[in-house]
Amino acid sequence: MHPAMTTVERPARAVSGSTRQPLKHRLADRGIDWSLLLLLPAVLIIGGLFVYPFLYGLSISFEPLKGSNPLSNYTDFLSDPYLRDSIVKTLRLALPVALVSVAFAAPLAFQARRNFRGRQAITLVFMLPLTFGSILIAQGMMRVFSDGGWINLLLQTVGIPKQQLIYNYAGTFIAATMVTIPFVFLLMMGFFGGIDRSLEHAAGTLGASKAARFWRITLPLASPGMVTAFTLALVEAFAVFPSAILVGQPDNATHVLTLPIYEAASQHSDYGSAAAIAMIMTVIELIILVVLVTVRNRIYRGPATAGKG
Which domains occur in the chain, in start order? Predict the structure, then answer.
């Protein structure tokens, strides 16, 4: 009697033990395997080039040159009207630059998604400013937009008086826009190219006009990508520095946040104050990024596709 019972129980134990998968398989079911080690170089690079410098800058921002108040670097900046006004001047420059860049690049990118003769040449021309850099563009503007430059000569030819287009807000705005437009154009080409054109063709077969297809299909699908491009252009414009000095008015209209950071670190060797201003600049950017990402997520509702951007 007892041997028979043991022979019945043993297979049951064997079956229950076989249903438990090894730890390796259970982790693999959750997406955890040895392939994650491929992320290790990227994690190390991000940690070494971004996380550590940020934490180091944050720590020294609480170390003032004078006094023992750890917040004095922040209070000194925020209590100085001239320095505090650089926040407003940065926003007055970065927001219009990003907006104009998206407004100018989006129609070009929309047309560039089609294959036509000269498409590659036109794309290459728009990509050239990215290879020049801000300093080379500013130096070129000193000749082209000066009082005797060909822009003012052309304006005089058509009866328009000379315009002051450099060494002021306009000069920095033009230089920053020339850098961000190709960047946004490259991004928007990918966003528009990722939209399934069969959706437009299907709407066309149902009688929708080209304008209706654009406003009801293409633009809603591309709008999250446009918000993304605007966000990245804004971050790029926030970091404007050479053009603010070379073709701007660094003591007034284009006294953006990057200038007091440079002045504190290079001219006064006050690295704590420079780090504090950089932290303030980072917080402002993060707030704007959170708002824009929230807007982007509200615009797009649905499954992730290439058109989402």
Answer: 71-300 (1.10.3720.10)
